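Predict fold of NADH-dependent alcohol dehydrogenase; 384 aa.
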Amino acid sequence: MLNFEFYNPTRIVFGENTIQRLADLVPAQARVLVVYGGNSAKAFGTIDQVIQALGSREVVEFGGVEANPEYTTLLKAVDLIKAKNLDYILAVGGGSVIDGVKFIAAANKFAEEDKWKILEGTPLTQALPFGVVLTIPATGSEMNAGAVISYRDRGLKRSFHSPLVFPQFSIMDPQKTLTLPERQTMNGVVDSFVHIVEQYVTKDTGASVSDEFAEGLLRVLLKVGPKLKADPQCLPARSDLMWAATNALNGLIRLGQVTDWSVHAIGHQLTALYGIDHARTLAIVLPGVWEYKLEAKQAKLAQMGRKVFALESNDERELALATIVKTEEFFHSLGVATRLRDYNLGENAIPEIVANLEKIGATNLGEDKDIDYVASSKILTSRL
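Predicted 3D structure, encoded as tokens:
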């Protein structure tokens, strides 16, 4: 097992009818910017519940954060905070809204005029405090210190990480997910699944505790995905998905492990260039990365086959290949396509995708740092 250090200060408040806890969790004198995405947060009454729970605190609303939070939109929220002299932010939504709020919190205290430098790696020294009311389980952003932001005018999608952007708290009421469209629910299952395997299907470091956590979470997702596709109103399954998605990316299962993240790096370009849902880009790229890195990942893929899919074979390579097939079949069972052609993308798209990787310097990817631009092109070609 590798050496590690773990820190996670986010308070989790999980369960039904917990939005009222905002009255205790948000400072009494706070001047709050409530940030959300589309109209559903308004239409289903969540924003009204939030405003009511905040009581006499000064509240300003900012809606319209996109499914992949757009840099130029978020800058408007930064300006609004300054104009209204606000000092606290509340994210109401899923990973995109939370990621957007992390950027807003950081940019508000960022001295340089060009706030995109945050995404280029300029270290943060301070950020506004914020909390979360989670309504879409998928990204784990409610309990981690990372965010992914898009800049459509430049065709870019980049991430940043800082311990200064951990949420102070996250309220997680599974009832708030009952109104989600099937597409968003299935995206959440796939997103969580790939988050787990990017930290698990790498090298055997002897991190048995982390492996067991990862395998358990994967087995939960294999159960709740089909269950929610068949019965979207199943609240126990909604609860399991919400908590599994959080644990998939709160830092716990990476401890002692070597992580990959090449699938995300390549997948981000499909969203930046073509607007494909983040989770669906991962479903496209993941089998290609596993096939390209089969020799290096064979042992962990075979372990996953035995422990997660209950496959049996004495041939490790055969078992690893069967695990890739089973994973792709699982995505298909959720109605999630896994080929570029399913999104009307052909061979001519690959140079554009690779050029975008070059634009952001995304080379030497993966746990062995051996997925370069040529390898990325081969992986994408295998997914046509």
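The chain has a mean pLDDT of 96.
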